[in-house]
Design goal:
InterPro entries: Initiator_Rep_WH1, WH-like_DNA-bd_sf, WH_DNA-bd_sf. This is Initiator Replication protein. GO terms for molecular function: DNA-directed DNA polymerase activity. This protein is α+β, with helices and mostly antiparallel strands and about 425 residues long. It has three domains: about 230 residues, Arc Repressor Mutant, subunit A; about 70 residues, no CATH class; about 70 residues, no CATH class. The protein is built from 16 helices and ten strands. It has a four-stranded mixed sheet, with helices on both faces. The protein has a three-stranded antiparallel sheet with strand order 3-7-6. Strand 6 and strand 7 form a beta hairpin.
């Protein structure tokens, strides 16, 4: 989704490989993904990465997938809706091939996905899989870090900046490209740099610096008197630096790694768990899960055991604490509610933005005399000095007066907002 980096940002996996200094590709995605959908895309790519170009499809235990992303493990409706959103999202790339020839392409983010017998099976188109697997295009990011993010814009900015950590800068992006990366292209509200900076850039930078293993600083470049480009200076955050996991670290030779593979855990996830938690801790949880009766999904249960430290005395085969399980489930429910609330707010913003576009179109149809009369009539209906001052400054795009503006034009043009509400 941008210059030289891959917004398939949602396409970052759980383990990080070394990034490449050469800036070579741009992969953009259309459509607006929620924070949970973005995380889901990351986990799916993590699971499939090693076999992206060799396997036609990939599978993962549905409960494990839901748990890793933060869904209730029984909430298959939300999982189905998110998979549908990924299948409906378009990925587009425009880059130079190995011989310097221009290549343009387009593909759905997932070519198919299905849930059957507790297993999620999915696939990428061959062309997109090849692009995603190219280490020059794509740098893997630890899913442990993505759990810290509470906004889609923060996670999107992190993923778009991370691959440049070794070069120290993203390079200059036009504001048009940056809006696409953040998923706010098409919004007239964010065409204003003032709004873009206050509502998107500043909060996202704070979240990246607080929650991730990199620190970023925005810089702006003007053309004339207006800001036209943005770039981010990047350095590693020593307070939150995560382990680097390579392919020659000997992890695959460990006994605990082989046991994880036997339980259906993917190679990449198995190595991540061992590095994050340590060999002894993972072995302890494996032994604990093995001793539990009626476990439907060993991999999913193991993920929960690692995360919530089930029975930290491995030799005492006590059952999981029901109260702890309840609290964990309540926490995940709250996280899900927060994401749903965020989605609702974003949908409301999009609706309001579309209404402002309609208002602008209606105003453009009026002659100068009608426009003056409309403004005087609207101002006469405002009782608050602040509201009047806001309208005089921002006119029909006044956010403070949005409700009143929409009501005013709905009276003048009863069908103006048909289909938006």
């Amino acid at each position: 989704m941008t210059n030289a980096q891959i917004d398939m940002d949602q396409l970052t996996g759980a383990l990080r490989r070394e990034t490449v200094k050469k800036n070579v590709a741009a992969i953009h995605i259309s459509g607006k993904l929620s924070l949970l959908q973005r995380k889901l895309s990351n986990v799916l790519l993590l699971n499939a990465y090693d076999a992206l170009t060799s396997a036609q499809s990939h599978t993962i235990d549905a409960r494990t997938l839901a748990t890793m992303v933060g869904y209730n493990s029984n909430d298959m409706d939300t999982l189905r809706a998110s998979l549908r959103a990924l299948a409906e999202t378009v990925a587009e790339w425009d880059m130079l091939d190995e011989e310097g020839r221009q290549e343009w392409g387009v593909s759905s983010l997932l070519s198919f996905a299905k849930l059957k017998n507790g297993v999620c099976e999915y696939s990428y188109s061959p062309a997109l899989a090849q692009k995603l697997h190219d280490p020059k295009i794509y740098a893997l990011i630890n899913v442990h870090i993505q759990r810290n993010f509470t906004s889609g814009h923060g996670l999107a900015l992190y993923e778009n900046c991370y691959r440049f950590v070794r070069t120290g800068s993203t390079g200059w992006w036009s504001l048009e490209i940056f809006r696409k990366l953040m998923g706010v292209d098409g919004s007239s509200y964010y065409e204003s740099f003032k709004h873009l900076n206050a509502k998107i850039i500043k909060p996202a930078v704070v979240e990246v610096n607080r929650n991730s293993d990199i620190e970023i600083t925005p810089e702006f470049k003007k053309k004339g008197r207006a800001v036209a480009d943005v770039r981010f200076l990047i350095k590693e955050n020593p307070q939150l630096a995560m382990f680097q996991i390579g392919d020659d670290d000997g992890i695959r030779n460990m006994g605990v790694y082989k046991k994880l593979i036997e339980q259906g855990v993917s190679d990449r996830l198995a190595r991540q768990w061992i590095v994050e938690h340590g060999e002894d801790y993972v072995a302890e949880k494996l032994d604990y899960v093995r001793r539990q009766p009626d476990v439907k999904s060993a991999a999913g249960y193991l993920n929960a055991a690692l995360k919530d430290d089930y029975n930290n005395q491995a030799k005492v085969p006590s059952p999981p604490n029901p109260e702890a399980l309840k609290l964990a489930e309540e926490r995940r429910a709250k996280e899900r509610e927060a994401d749903e609330e965020l989605d609702a707010r974003l949908a409301e913003r999009a609706k309001r933005s579309r209404k402002f576009e309609v208002v602008s179109e209606l105003v453009s149809r009026r002659n100068p005399t009608q426009r003056d009369a409309d403004k005087r009539l609207f101002l006469a209906g405002l009782d608050d000095d602040l509201e009047r001052a806001e309208f005089r400054t921002h006119g029909w795009q006044s956010a403070l007066n949005a409700t009143a503006i929409f009501a005013f034009w709905a009276q003048l043009e009863p069908d103006a907002f048909e289909g938006i509400d």
